[in-house]
Design brief:
The chain is α/β, with parallel strands linked by helices and 712 residues long. 35% of the residues lie in helices and 12% in strands. It starts with 6 loop residues before the first helix and ends in an 11-residue tail after the last helix. The structure holds alpha-D-glucopyranuronic acid.
Length: 712
């Protein structure tokens, strides 16, 4: 059975060849390659859409992105309807789609009145019908080519989801200006925490020659509203340090050119010590004049090669990466030095806050990794330059299946920030397990930080920053590689998709995004739509229930982070402990008696977490030490909850296989098999998790399961 056709084989099939100058979308059915841009064009009755769609396109305005928008629309309509739409040179023909850049000021004869136009941001769009001299046309208006491009993809989504009505009126702006993907790709082609093959950018310490796959990737990104990419790993090793030298910059520029056509800015991760490693300096001290001028010259060189270069992503003084600490300088001094170099060209510094002591003594119960980002960065609030954004992981630890929201996000008041998620499933089953992440991310967006009083949700902090003209953003570690289907597990494409949709509009529900994705990827057969949507929606809960309990996290095999190992990190230096003994488990992070972490939140959240009675139960063990015999809200003891949730989780993982199997006749055969194999592995592996975790706690506590199930 052919499961994962790799990029190299794919190119040999001729399917991968495409002319880079024109958008030439071909379908690669049953491979997963087309993802949600297959435009299969079959509605739930099995008929194609041809009768419902305009047959000609007219563009107004000039912009390379408007050309991209027109070409994308043309190709998609051809695929959807079987007919190539005509590109006409007058808007007068009834039944056209008008793509219009309305940069302003608004003409009196415009289809968009001024008060509507004023509501548009630079990347927003309006979709509506308008009456021209000779009839009704469908209009997509925006202030920029990027806005029109997003409008085109929105229109195609509406068409496929069956929600394009005659009275359609859609005015959308993204919640934040920077919607980014971080690739943890190394030049040798390996991807740190990658579970879907190798890099689509690099191989053998070079850039990949055939750039057509990057073009197809840019399409996927733009179609969900993403506008920025960092192509190399935050851990910048020796070879990758050279990406900002003349040896590589022209290649970076080529890739940036592809992304640019889709409204995506290119950024690079840099090595903080570049002045020493590739410059000839003996220091990287940010206050050293030589260091400052080296970076200023470097910025000039980069922007001469890539005029719209985005800027630098920096992991400094984190997990053995160099940084300003070596010179007795703080993060603001480090970041501001780079910011000064980039500022004349409009570049940004995105400075990561994943800073903690990774050489902790496990016997030390005072130091708490959860406090680290907050304690390192809160004292610096207000000290960063305007073109610096702090990149903050969504939780205080490291992308666990359940964590509280980082208190730093609601702590900083005077500093720009980027919220960081992880799409690649490092801790959530590594794309061998199904784990749809939208519900988890929704919890983050909806979390009320009380920063500016009640209602200061993370989503509103982001939109508030955008409204007040401050920089803000959302980023995530990408989950794609050169596996033919991009994400290894076909259903993991839903995570890529929902990330972009939420980064555009965090108000969308997990369910509506799942449905959109299923329809565009698999069609709209009602049984298939309900079943796959249901599987996605329950998957995070399933994964959580057979892995580490009630927010404590970890319990994975060290380094590779796949599979159960309850004590895997218990006696290590990484600061990630569960502290289980024969009586109970959990970390006391209260102010009263623990590490004080709960007190990092604004009131009343801090009080809520401080008290075990009000602490949300799914986070109970993150904040409190709980005895096995203690009762939870369900009336069950903690130990019984652990047993029950693990058995239930495994049972549900088995159900996923059955549910998928029931759709054999509705799915393309190879897609069906690929997913089936992954789900079968998940079911088997969930049992491993269940048995290891349950046996561990049974042996520690000596308390039997009250249902008498097999524990080892
Ligand atoms: C995790 C991950 C690393 C990564 C790091 C980071 O610790 O395991 O591979 O480098 O996060 O976010 O920098």
């Amino acid at each position: 059975m052919q499961i994962a056709l790799k990029e190299r084989d794919f190119m040999k099939t001729n399917l991968g060849r495409s002319n880079m100058n024109t958008i030439n979308i071909r379908r690669h059915p049953d491979s997963g390659y087309d993802a949600w841009l297959a435009f299969a064009g079959i509605d739930k009755d099995g008929t194609i859409y041809s009768h419902t769609l305009p047959e000609s396109i007219y563009t107004f305005g000039r912009d390379p992105l408007l050309d991209t928008a027109r070409d994308e629309l043309k190709c998609a309509l051809k695929l959807l309807t079987g007919k190539m739409p005509k590109v006409v040179d007058s808007p007068a023909k009834s039944g056209s789609i008008l793509l219009e850049i309305l940069a302003g000021p608004v003409r009196t004869d415009s289809f968009v009145p001024e008060e509507e136009w004023n509501k548009l941001g630079s990347e927003g769009y309006i979709i509506k019908y308008c009456n021209t001299a000779s009839g009704k046309n469908l209009l997509i208006t925006a202030k920029t080519g990027a806005g029109v491009l997003y409008g085109v993809y929105a229109l195609l989504r509406l068409v496929q989801c069956g929600t394009l009505t005659q009275d359609i009126y859609l005015l959308e702006n993204p919640v934040t200006g920077l919607r980014m993907l971080n690739h943890w790709d190394n030049l040798d082609g390996k991807i740190e925490r990658g579970y879907a093959g190798s890099s689509i950018f690099f191989e053998d310490n070079k850039f990949i020659m055939d750039l057509s796959r990057i073009r197809d990737y840019a399409r996927l990104m733009a179609s969900i509203g993403l506008n920025a990419v960092v192509m190399n790993n935050v851990n910048v090793h020796k070879t990758e340090t050279n990406l900002i030298t003349s040896a590589f910059l022209p290649k970076v520029a080529k890739v940036a050119e592809i992304f640019r056509k889709y409204g995506i800015k290119t950024f690079l991760s840099i090595n903080y010590c570049s002045t020493m490693e590739i410059g000839k300096l003996d220091t990287a001290d940010p206050l050293d004049e030589g260091v400052k001028s080296w970076w200023a010259n470097k910025a000039k060189e980069i922007f001469e090669t890539i005029p719209d270069f985005g800027g630098f992503l920096v992991k400094a003084d984190s997990e053995f990466r160099p940084g300003p600490f070596t010179y007795g300088r703080n993060h603001a001094e480090g970041a501001n030095m780079l910011a000064a170099a980039l500022e004349p060209f409009g570049g940004l510094v995105i400075w990561r806050c994943f800073v903690y002591n990774c050489t902790q003594d496990w016997r030390d119960r005072v130091t708490d990794r959860a406090n680290a980002a907050y304690d390192n960065f809160m004292p610096l609030d207000g000290l960063f330059a305007d073109n610096v954004l702090l990149q903050i992981k969504s939780g205080p630890m490291d992308f666990q299946v359940r964590e509280p929201v980082s208190p730093l996000l609601g702590g900083l008041k005077k500093t720009n920030f980027v919220l960081e998620f992880q799409i690649t499933q490092e801790y959530t089953g590594q794309q061998r397990h199904l784990c749809y992440l939208a519900p988890l991310w929704k919890d983050v967006f909806d979390f009320d930080t009380y920063r500016d009083g009640a209602g200061s949700t993370i989503a509103s902090l982001l939109s508030g920053a955008a409204a007040s003209g401050r920089l803000s953003g959302i980023t995530a570690v990408a989950n794609i590689g050169n596996d033919m289907n991009w994400t290894g597990h076909d259903l993991a494409q839903a995570n890529f998709y929902c990330y972009g949709r939420l980064a555009w509009n965090p108000g969308l529900s997990s369910e509506e995004i799942a449905k959109e994705w299923v329809i565009q990827t698999f069609g709209c057969n009602p049984h298939l739509l309900d079943t796959i949507t249901g599987m996605l929606l329950e998957s995070h809960h399933i994964y959580e229930s057979y892995t580490s309990p009630l927010g404590i996290g970890w319990m994975v095999n060290p380094n590779q982070h796949y599979g159960p190992n309850v004590d895997g990190y218990e006696y290590s230096a990484w600061g990630t402990y569960h502290r289980a003994d024969h009586e109970g488990l959990g970390v006391d992070r209260t102010v009263a008696a623990g590490t004080g972490y709960a007190g990092r939140y604004n009131k009343p959240v801090s009080e809520l977490y401080e008290n075990p009675k009000t602490c949300p139960e799914e986070l109970l063990l993150f904040f409190h030490r709980v005895l096995y015999k203690q009762k939870l809200k369900s009336g069950k003891t903690l130990i019984q909850h652990i047993y029950d949730s693990h058995f239930e989780g495994t049972g549900k993982a088995e159900q996923l296989v059955i549910k998928w199997s029931g759709m054999k006749d509705l799915l393309p055969p190879q897609t069906f098999e690929r997913v089936l194999n992954r789900l079968a592995e998940q079911a088997k592996h969930s049992k491993e998790w269940c048995d290891v975790v349950n046996s561990y706690f049974y042996r520690k506590s000596g308390i039997p399961d009250n249902k008498g199930r097999q524990i080892y």
